[in-house]
Amino acid sequence: MNTTRQMVAQRRVLFGMLGLLVPACAANPEDGGGQGGSGGQGGAGELRVPCREPAIVRDAAGRDTGFEKCADGRVHRVRTVACVEPQPVGAACALDGFECKVDADCTERPFGRCIDQSFQEDYCGCVYGCATDADCAEGNVCVCAGDDAVMPGGSRCVPSNCAADTACADDELCLIGAGSDGCSTWYGMGCSSPEDTCLSLADCGGDLYRGCFPGVDGHFACGDNGICGRPFVVEARGRVAEPCFGAAWGALEPAPGPLTLSCDEGEALTAHWLSLAALEHASVASFAQFTLGLMAHGAPPALLSATAQAMADEVEHARRCYAIASVYAGMAISPGPLDTSGARPAESLEALLSATIREACVGETLGAVEAAHMAECVAEPALREAWALIAADELRHAALGWQTLAWGLPRAPGLTAGAVRATVLGALSEILGQPGDDLSDDPVVLARLRAHGMLAASERRALFLEAAEVLIGPCVEAILGTAGVCPAA
């Protein structure tokens, strides 16, 4: 089983569903953005502390970048300077059949280069540098290479609502933030404010993986919240129904053979499949809530039809998962009532799209990857059939999320490219950072659980890390590159 090849195939399917022809394989290292969310260690009082012991941030050759670093770790833009080396670095393309072959093909912005970005497979793409802010699109500034963790290694256009400290309110600074998923690094700038919850990378543990970014609302914060799959979220909390014993949603066909499992293994598998069943059941309500949000913002019929189909899919997923859980529990189990009080659609299109990024573009894409992987791992035909069905459906649901994002971005000016990247990074960070306790460290036990549909936490994390690089990153950059084009409805 080759999981990378499987993910590449899924990416081709996703790109086909989205009407995208760009054969990307990794996120382009172009202008990055911010990350919203919560969890920073700063505070309004701290953010208004004057910059003490400022030191000029220089590039590798000792040249002034226009940024200064405070003793508390804040890096801010004091003045604008022209970048001495505006041209992006990287190996020239030696491949055919991609968006560019030579630098002259890269004309979207100044200082374009056609660079070989091959990683999992061959790929060449355009990368753009800059010399001054005038080389960047509206809402972006040109940041020169700087010798600091939050500064890029080469000049690039970075989303920002300020050109320098003078554009910000009294006592506030024009800050830069950065973060990484281990494959690519994102950058974002903005004026600090009393609503920010972090000052710098130091306030987020000094870890680029978390970062300190300006989010969709413009406020700096560490991390973001993401929940795997399509959760039913009310007032920022996921809801599921409690299990109800004594009534089954349906029998499992074909019936599994004798279960040669220990008591601990049986209990773990029952809990695992019940958790999956509850999430699939709650997804029906989530899609209903999503439908209201789409209609409130004038979504086209194709998105509404796909959402209605997704609701029906989730009913079937829940039915199968409850049936499987019932087998491992040795008794019939179905969902009880689901609390829907207080549920309402997102108030703004930006909020709807941000939730879609977390729950569909990230959550359901990862769900499709895990389901496809499990369809090849499980031993029982009924489990294989269930996982294969879920994998195909979840990939369509993920595509619906990416299609919704592509449709909504031109209509949501508050959701910048940097904010999109940051929301994706935050959702991935939340999912990958979730603790996982394995039932055993015995490879034989873990293999037996895997054969019954339950991955070890370490295996799941490795699978998701690869999916972030092979699937999610390329989709983000492809969507941002075609955000003005609505997929065929």
Which features does this protein show?
single chain; alpha+beta; Ferritin; three-stranded antiparallel β-sheet; two-stranded antiparallel sheet; 15 strands
Describe what this molecule looks like in 3D:
This protein has nine helices and 15 strands. Helix 3 packs antiparallel against helix 4 and helix 5 packs across helix 7. The relative contact order is 0.15. It is α+β, with helices and mostly antiparallel strands and 489 residues long.
The coarse silhouette is elongated
Specify the structural class. Answer: alpha+beta
Q: Work out the radius of gyration.
A: 24 Å
CATH superfamily of the largest domain: Ferritin, core subunit, four-helix bundle
CATH class of the largest domain: Mainly Alpha
Strand order of the largest sheet: 1-2-3
Topology (SSEs and partners):
Blueprint (H helix, E strand, L loop, with lengths): L2 H16 L25 H4 L7 E4 L5 E6 L5 E3 L34 E5 L7 E5 L11 E4 L12 E4 L14 E7 L4 E7 L20 E3 L5 E3 L9 E3 L2 E3 L3 E3 L17 H34 L4 H29 L3 E3 L13 H29 L3 H28 L8 H16 L10 H9 L5 H25 L8
Antiparallel strand pairs: 1-2, 2-3, 4-5, 6-7, 8-9, 10-11, 12-13, 14-15
Helix pairs in contact: 1-6, 1-9, 3-4, 4-6, 5-6, 5-7, 5-9, 7-9
